[in-house]
Amino acid sequence: STAQRPNGPTAQRPNGPTAQRPNGPTAQRPNGPTAQRPNGRPIDQPVKITLKLFASLTDYLPPASKYTNLVELDTAPDTTIGQLVEQYRLPEKLVHLVLVNGSYIAPEHRAAQMLQEGDVLAIWPPIAGG
Known about the structure:
Elements: E1 47-53, E2 70-75, H1 81-87, E3 97-100, E4 103-104, E5 120-124
């Protein structure tokens, strides 16, 4: 797409802490407040996901969820796996096997992998024994 800003591709914004948009401080984006994602959900609406933690990671769940090993969450739009791991303070060395809807997510993709409405995020620690 070659869409340009109304004033051209090199138009600059005014500088300074009191600079305002051309239509005032309350001007809205062209999309308006009801802009939607491709799946039809409003951009500002929370995304509902299920977080499932296994083995020793269940200690990081809220007490009411410890025995079911899962918690239903309303996350901010565009939340990543990495952000959710940080939010629950899961030690990186214990986040070993990560699946979203049953599909493996490699460690190098977890920081950028965004969660979508209805996703089930499942995390296992390293398992040893025999």
